[in-house]
Write a structure and sequence with these properties.
It comes from Piloderma croceum (strain F 1598). The chain has 416 residues and is of the alpha+beta class. It contains 13 helices and 12 strands. Helix 1 crosses helix 6 (172-190) and helix 7 (272-282) packs antiparallel against helix 9.
Length: 416
């Protein structure tokens, strides 16, 4: 159902089946170019009818068609005035307002629900739906305020029935399903997958990932002749990535066997099947530790401190200039080189490399046998020996003793 869902989302942003606005469906006299984001009906109305219909709904959000797209417009701009103190009726002697007010408000079979801006909680026979507005609101609160789905849902539940005497039906698990699918559909829409003639199902790994716009991209933001840049400015066109792991992002083993990914590998998360196949085959390889440091990344690469966790952390690559995320994947133990190798090479697929710089706090240890491990990967993931030979591997400056700094400085620091 992905393609149909994305098509309906795109139709909400335009005129739907119309090529241009028609006459107002209410009065039939004026041109209809306004629609309300909060009203149930998605029909277009003229200015006069929109203001009339929203006399008692002054907080609704309207959109106005400007010939190219729907732009935000306020009811105040359309001429609506709110007369206070008369139970919603017009004041017989009104005064013109002198100030503008900013108001923050939280408003109290499948395709038909989507066309009405209601997101179904299930696909086959939906009996529960969530408004697009409530899903968008949770998305913002979750990203900005780190609010959990549990706290958000039960806050709305308490707003409906704060005493618990009305017996509001619990739809928390349906909300989790809906927000997960909603985010997936929005990701496809924003990545332009709905406009691909081949359809959504033609999406390839990484197509929905957000690339760093400031990093060098050929034929996008590089000047002519950048390939022939002299040595003293070649660093401007160098690809810089940083590698690290976060062991606070753990996942406990809950016995869930059937939890498929939606769009596996389409964004920043590495595809599951090739990743786990590689780890199963080569994850047992252990390299002797030559790094003279107190870093757990070097000392405990194959350690798993508790069997209660399905994932002990997350390894990833980031843009070394602007810290935008590249590729990520879960870890089963410590920072095993097999895991990190696969994540790094997945990040470099399809990227250009006039020069390559990789920053990692245990680069001195991790990079030693990287070239030897390269034949273990599919050809499209491999980096040539010449490129590896010219690549710059940079150490993090924390955790290594002074003697080790002196020993490796010439090979692993920018200043040398």
């Amino acid at each position: 159902y992905r393609q149909a869902y994305v098509n309906i989302f795109l139709a909400h942003d335009g005129l739907g089946d119309l090529s241009e606005p028609s006459l107002c469906s209410c009065c039939g006299a004026n041109k209809a170019n306004l629609k309300c984001k909060d009203c149930f009906s998605d029909k277009l109305h003229c200015v006069q009818c929109s203001v009339k219909h929203h006399h008692n709904l002054p907080l609704h959000h309207l959109l106005q068609w400007n010939g190219l797209y729907f732009a935000d417009v306020t009811l105040q701009q359309l001429g609506l005035e709110v007369h206070l103190g008369h139970l919603g009726q017009h004041c017989p002697h009104p005064e013109h307002p002198i100030n503008d007010f900013t108001i923050v408000n939280r408003a109290h079979q499948r395709y038909q629900l989507l066309q009405s801006s209601w997101f179904p909680a299930s696909l086959d026979r939906p009996r529960t739906a969530f408004t697009f507005d409530v899903l968008d609101t949770f998305q913002l609160l979750n990203l900005q305020g780190k609010l959990s789905a549990y706290d958000f849902y039960y806050s709305l539940n308490h707003k409906t029935d704060n005493t618990g005497v009305r017996g509001v039906q619990d739809r928390y698990h349906q909300f989790l399903t809906a927000i997960r699918i909603f985010r997936h559909i929005k990701m496809l829409k924003r990545a332009g997958r709905g406009n691909d003639p081949a359809g959504v199902d033609a999406t390839q790994p990484g197509d929905c990932a957000v690339e760093c716009p400031a990093c060098p991209h050929p034929e996008r933001n590089l000047p002519e002749g950048w390939e022939e840049a002299p040595e003293h400015i070649k660093w401007l066109y160098c690809l810089i990535i940083t590698i690290d792991a976060n062991f606070c992002l753990k996942l406990k083993e809950k016995g869930i066997k059937d939890d498929p990914a939606i769009g596996d590998g389409w964004a920043h998360w590495v595809s599951s099947k090739p990743y786990h196949a590689y780890i199963s085959k080569y994850g047992h390889q252990v390299e002797p530790n030559i790094c003279n440091s107190d870093l757990k990344a070097a000392d405990h690469t194959h350690s798993k401190f508790s069997k209660a966790y399905r994932s002990t952390g997350v390894g990833g690559c980031l843009c070394g200039r602007h810290t935008l995320v590249g590729k990520l994947r879960d870890l089963q133990k410590g920072e095993r080189y097999a895991n990190m190798d696969f994540i790094v090479l997945s990040t470099l697929i399809g990227t250009f490399m006039l020069a390559l710089t990789i920053s990692y706090d245990i680069c001195c240890q991790w990079s030693r046998n990287l070239a030897k491990c390269m034949p273990q990967f599919p050809p499209f993931m491999q980096i040539s020996k010449d490129r590896l030979r010219t690549a710059k591997f940079v150490l993090g400056g924390v955790g290594h003793c002074f003697a080790w700094h002196v020993r490796v400085s010439f090979g692993f620091y920018f200043n040398f």
